[in-house]
Amino acid sequence: MAAIKILSVDDEAPLELLMKQYFRRKIRSGEYEFYFARNGLEALSILYNNPDIEIILSDINMPEMDGLTLLAKVNEMRNPALRVIMVSAYGDMKNIREAMNNGAFDFATKPIDMEDLSLTIEKAITQINFVHQTQKEHVQLESLKNELTTAHDIQQYILPRVFPPFPEALDKVDIYASMEAAKDIGGDFYDFFRVDDDHIALVIADVCGKGIPAALFMAVGRTIIRSKGMQGFSAAECVTESNRLLAAYSVSNMFVTMFYAIYNTKTGLISYSNAGHNPPHILRSNGTVSVLPLSKNTIVGVFDDLEYQEDTLQLEQGDTLVMFTDGVTEAADAEYNEFGANRLDNILMQHANANSQQIVEAIKAGIKEFVGDAEQSDDITMLVVKRL
């Protein structure tokens, strides 16, 4: 551990000998390192050349620059770890009080009680160490914050961000998606990709938990699902295989709810497997809204030997499938009232003729208006597909 550097400022020469004699053991052991000045001007020069000095023992009454002026100069340095202990005659309480009011850490009176001064120095060292620890933690937090910002950017990058995603199918399907993490990074994700010329895979999922563990599990999950989906597996097969692999990776009871679907761009037929996820809502072209049946399958990533089932859904021209995570319906206001499915459906019914992006933005605006200033408690993710 580095020595504590102490600057003694006093125009009385015998004090230097007293300090060296009394603290000789700590000086020899490397605990203390002393510097000596005869007045405030010499002290400032020493401080300039030794900015790591953290304790100043300063007399108040000195020639050329007194202790109170030196204290004012030290305050201008704005070093949160630096501690100034003022030294003066016992009868000089007015100046001592002024020094304390202007930021001195403590004081000692002449003739100096060296044992008391030693305790005062040790008390100052305790506070200095606390400041250093706080500064260290601040640096670590800043570093973590920067890492989280980078992680957020990476997470956003791996999600599809280009819309419309399939220019060759502009007259067949309209897709838009959005993910807003409750923290710097989240556990929700969406994805879509071509399986073949006539089929597009769609996936929305919600990893249990938030923050870095959920984000890492999300990245693994998305990679596995996309890999299996692009091999041409059916919806049920893709979820079954993804579950088998994710269960092998799962730690700390992490799991995923997932809705995986394969959309036929020619017929509008959707085959899907819902693994414990919120049932998507269907907005028909006439403005009516229905909800898909509750999931027949359990969550993904816990048991590796499950066989998942699939169902089908027919989208007619102008129909829209609205997929979302529970951060939408469970978004809460300051009194913990939830946004709910009814408010969601009311927004959908008013946007039967809107495109996918307009629907997503309308839902986001409705949630924002409902929750007001309440803090976002969960990731808000939507994937909307409209048959043209």
In terms of structural class, how would the helical and strand content be classed?
alpha/beta
The helix tally amounts to 11
How many strands appear in the DSSP assignment?
Answer: 15
Number of separate domains: 2
Question: Can you give a write-up of this model?
Answer:
The protein is α/β, with parallel strands linked by helices and about 400 residues long. It folds into two domains: about 5-135, 3-Layer(aba) Sandwich (Rossmann fold), CATH 3.40.50.2300; about 160-385, PPM-type phosphatase domain (Phosphatase 2c, domain 1, 4-Layer Sandwich). Helix content is about 40%, strand content about 25%. The chain has helices spanning about 15-20, 25-30, 40-50, 65-75, 95-100, 115-160, 210-230, 235-250, 325-330, 340-350, 355-370, and strands at about 5-10, 30-35, 55-60, 85-90, 105-110, 175-180, 190-195, 200-205, 255-265, 270-275, 280-285, 290, 310-315, 320-325, 380-385. Strands 2-1-3-4-5 form a five-stranded parallel sheet, sandwiched between helices. Strands 6-15-14-11-12 form a five-stranded antiparallel sheet. Helix 10 crosses helix 11. The longest helix has about 45 residues, at about 115-160. The mean pLDDT is about 90.
Which helices and strands, and how do they pair?
Blueprint: E1 4-9, H1 13-22, H2 24-28, E2 32-37, H3 40-49, E3 55-59, H4 67-77, E4 83-89, H5 93-101, E5 106-110, H6 114-158, E6 173-180, E7 188-196, E8 199-207, H7 211-229, H8 235-249, E9 256-264, E10 269-275, E11 281-283, E12 289-291, E13 311-314, E14 320-324, H9 326-329, H10 340-349, H11 356-371, E15 380-387
Helix pairs in contact: 3-4, 7-8, 10-11
